[in-house]
From TrEMBL, chain A:
Highest taxon, organism lineage: Bacteria
The keyword tRNA-binding is annotated on this UniProt entry: no
Protein name: Oxidoreductase molybdopterin binding domain protein
Oxidoreductase molybdopterin-binding domain sequence ranges: 74-143
UniProt cross-references to Pfam families, sorted A to Z: Oxidored_molyb (PF00174)
TrEMBL record, chain B:
One Gene Ontology biological process: regulation of DNA-templated transcription
Keywords linked to the UniProt accession: ATP-binding, Cell inner membrane, Cell membrane, Kinase, Membrane, Nucleotide-binding, Phosphoprotein, Transferase, Transmembrane, Transmembrane helix, Two-component regulatory system
Membrane topology: Multi-pass membrane protein
The protein's name: histidine kinase
The encoding gene: arcB_1
In-chain residues carrying the UniProt-annotated modification Phosphohistidine: H803
Amino acid sequence: MRGMHMLCGAVMALIVWTGAALASDLPAPEGPVLLHVTGEISVTNQDGAAAFDLDLLRGIGAQTIETTTIWTDGVQTFEGVPLHDLTKALGITGSALRATAVNDYAVDIPLADAVPGGAFLAFARNGRPMSVRDKGPLWVIYPYDSAPRYQAEIYYARSIWQLDRIEVLP
Amino acid sequence: MQRKIDIIFNDNGLVRRGLTGFVVSLFISTIAVLVMDARAQMARLETASSDNIQWVLSQTETEIVGLKIAMYEARLAETLDLDELRLRFDIFYSRIETLKNSPVFDEMRQDPEVRSALTEIEAFLAEWVPAIDSPDPQFRAVLPEFAVDIDAAHRTSREMALAGIEFFSRTSDLRRTSVSRTLFNIAVLTVALVVLLLMVAIALLRLARQRERSATENRLTRERMETIISTSLDAVIVTNRSGVIEEYNGAAERIFGYSRDEAIGQQMADLIIPPQFRDMHHAGMKRYTEHGEARLIGKGIAQLEATGKDGKLFPVDISLASAQSPGGEIFIGFMRDISDRVQAEQALKRARDRAIEGEKHKAELLAVMSHEMRTPLNGLLGTLDLFETDSLNPKQRRHLRIIRNSGKLLLAHVNDVLDISRLDAGKMSMRKTRFDLIALLTEIIESQSGRAAQNGNRLVLSPPSPALHEVYSDPDRIRQIMLNLVGNAIKFTKDGTITIEAECQNGLNEVELRVIDTGVGIEEADLERIFGDFVTIDNSYGRSNTGTGLGLGISSRLASALGGMLGAESEPGDGSLFWMRLPLAPAPGETPQIDSAAPTPDPDLEIDLPPLQILMVEDNEVNRMVAREMLERLGHSVTEAYDGAEGVERANREEYDLILMDISMPGMDGLTAARLIRSGDGPSADVPIIATTAHALPEEVVAFRAAGMNDVLIKPINGAAIRRVLGSVFMEFAQDAQADDDPGAPVPLLNHTHLAELSADLPSDRLEAALRTFATEMTTFVAEIRLMLETDADRAAMAAEAHRMAGSAGVFGAERLTELLRELQTMAPDAPLDALLAKRRELNALWPETLSEIERSGHVSLANLEAP
C-alpha cells in the first residue's frame, strides 16, 4: 500500500514536472553528454536529438534499486532513472528503442519493457558513477531479484551496458 | 458371522489401503522431487547458463581485436588523440571484469587453463592501466611496447576462449545427460506409478464386487429374516436402548392389539408392560445399562404377565436377547400368549388335587369303615360265645356254627381290607425277631398237608440250607404270606405236587422262598394283574383263600414292607412258581430281639383267679355287653363307665381290682384317662389297667405303658383272650397256684407234628372216623359235666371220663385240651363246686378252639362234624 502511495506520488510529481518540461523544452546539457536519444521523439535539445548529461538524467528523477546480476559478484546498488520515466519525459510513443553501446553492440528494447518496475537506466553503481571499464556510462538493467521473470535470456540480452545512444523506432 | 468377516476384511483393507496410500505418495513425492530437479535443470539451461557463452568468449576476442585495430590506427596517425584507444581498452577491460566476476563463469574459472589465461590477461590490464590513464604524450611513448603486449594478450585471450568453449561444451553435455537421466527416472517412476494405480484399481474393483456380493447376501438374509419375523407365531418386538419400539410383527399385532403403525416409535413399557410392573422394568433396564447385569436378557424363557390394548392381563412366555445394530444396542423380545396353556395347567392341577383328595378320602373311608365294621362284628362273635351250646338242639347248634363261621370269614375280610389300608399308609409295623425259618416252613407243611390231600396234592419241603435255622424277620408275616401262597397252590392244583423251597442266594442277605405247583398255571396276561387289589377274575390266583381278591395284594405289600419282593412265573397247563426274595439277616444297626426276651404275654397261660371287682371303661354298648357277660361268666363283677371322664371319676371314688380301658373314645380318650388315674391319689390309682383296642402297634403299646397301663387286650374280645390277659396281669396269684407245673414250657393248643404223623400213619377215612367219635364223646362230656357235679358218685365218674377224654385228646395232639382234662380229673373228687364250674367253662372254651385248630391244620376234614 505504501509502495502504491509512493508510486502515485511519483506519478503526480512526474505529471507536474512533465508539464513544466513541455512548456519550456529540454534544457541543453552542460556537463559531458552521456546519452543521445534520436528518432521518434517529441522533446529535443539538439537537432532532432535529446542529449542528456548526468544532471539532466537526474532531473527526470533519480531512483535506486538493488539487485544481483549474472555479471557481477554480490548485490549491487544501482542509481538511475526508470526507462518508463525517460520515455514519458521525452514523450516517446514508438514501438521500441534501439539501444547501442560504445562497442556498437545493439539491441532492440520493446517499449513494453519501459513500465514502472521494468527496465532501468543506471548511471551509478554502488554509489560511484560508472566508467567504461565499469560498464558505464549507462547500463540498462532489470530488477532481476524482485521480478524473477526478468531472469531470462531475452532480458539478459536486453541488459545492455556501456550504452550511449538510443534510437526510438517508430 | 457376517459381521465378523466384515471386521476382518476391514482390518485387512485398512492395512492394505494404508500401504497402498503410502506407496503411491512415495511415488508421487519421488516424481515430484525429480520433476523439480528436472525443472531446476531446465531453469539453469534457460537462465544462468543460457547467456550465450560462445558469444561472450568470442566477443572478448572481438574486443581485443578492436583494441588492436585502435592501437594500429593510433600508431599510424600520430596526430590522432588516443581516446579511441583508451575506449577500446576500457571495453576490453570491462569484458575481462565481467569474466572475472560473473557467477555464470564460476565453474569455467575453475578450469586451470582458463584461470591461468585470465590471470595473465588481468596482469596485462593491471600493468597498462597507469599508462592508459596518463596523458597522451606519455602514453604515445609506450605504444610500441603496448602493441607487443596486446598481441600477447590476444593470443592468451584466444587460448582462453578455446579452453572455455571446450569446458562449456563438456558441461552442457553433462547437463544434458543429467536431464535425460532425470527424465528417464521420471518416466520409469511414472510407469511404475501407473502400474501400481492399476493394481489398486483392480483391487478396488474386486473389493467393490465382493461388497456388492455381500450386500446382496445381506439383503437376502434380511429379507428372509423379515419373512420369518413377519410370519412368526410369536410376537417379535425390537426396541432400541431407550425402549422405543423399532420393529413389531403381525403376531404382536394379534397378541397385543396395537397395530404396527401405532406401536412403532412408542415406549414398549407403556404399551405392553402392566402398570404395576413398569417400575420394576425400568429398574431392571437401569441395572442392565449401568452394570450390565442381566436377569432376563439372554437367560432363556421366562414367564411374565403382559397387557395389551384392551388393558387385560395375560401370561406370556418371553425370551429376550440383545444385539448390536448400526444404531447401537437393540433388544429383541419373543413373546407368546400362554393363557390357554396356563389355564389348562391350572385345570389339570385342580383335577389332580381333586383326585388325590378323593383317593385320600377313599382310603380314609376304607380304614374307618373297616374299623367301624370290626366293632359290631366283635359284638356279634363275642355274643355267639355266650350261647350255652349244650342247651341247644343240634339244628340250632348247626345254625350257630354257620353264623360263627360266616362272622369269622367276614372278620377276616375286614382284617384284609384294614391290612391293605394300613400297609398303604405305612402304618403296618413289622415285629422283627430271631426265629427258625425251617421250623416255620415245616409247620406250614404239616398244617396244610391235610388240605392239600383233599385235592389229591402232595405238599413237600425241599431240604433247605441249615443256615435258615436262625434268621431275622417277622415270622408272623412270613407265615401269613406263605400260607396265602400255599393255599392258592392247593386250590389251583389237582392231583399234583406243591413244593416249598428255600434257598440262600447271598447268604442271609437274600433268601428266596418258592412255592411251586403243577397246577393249571396262569396266563401271561394275568401274571401282572394277580398282584392287584380286588382281582377276582375266574380261576385267578388273585382270589385268595379269604376270597376278597386281596390275598396276593396283601402278600405283595407285606413282602415289600419286609424289604423284599414277591413275583410269579407260570406256564399255563404246567403250573406256577411264586417266589419271594427277602433279606433275612439282621439289618445293620438293628438289634436282634431274642424271642424269649419279648415281653409278650404267654398266650397259653391260664390260671384260676379269685373273683375280681372290674371297672370297664368302654363307649360301645355292644362291646360293654359282651365283655360284661364274659367277665361275669368268669366269676368277676363289672362296673361300667361310658367314657374316659366317667372312668376317672369312678376310679377315684372306689377301689377296683382291675380296670379295662378302651383307647379310642369320644371326649377323653383312654390314654388320658389312664394317666389321670395314675397321677391321682384315688383308691384305684395303683390297680392294673388293661387297654382294649382294635389294633396296637409296638410304639402304641409303648405309649400305653408310658401312660401307666399294664397290658393290652386286642379286640374283638373273646373269653380265651380275656383269661390270658388276666392271667398275665395277675402273675403273682398264678405263681402260687402253678408252683408244681413247669412254667417255662407252655403247652401248645395243638401239636402239629404229632397230628401230621398220625395223618401220615392212618388212612384219612380212619382218622376222620376216630376224630368224629372223639368229637361226639367230647361234646357229650362237656355237656354232661354239669349234671355229674350234682352228686359225689358222679364226681368219680367224671374223673374217669376226664381221664378217658384226656387220652383221646392226646391221640390227636390236642395237648392243651389234654392237660385241662387231666387237671379236671385231678380236681373232680374233692374240689369245690365253683372251681369245677370254672374248669368246665375253660373246657367249654378250649374244646371248640381245639377243634377249629385241628380243622385249620388241614390234616383232617371236619366238614361232616358237628361243632360243639
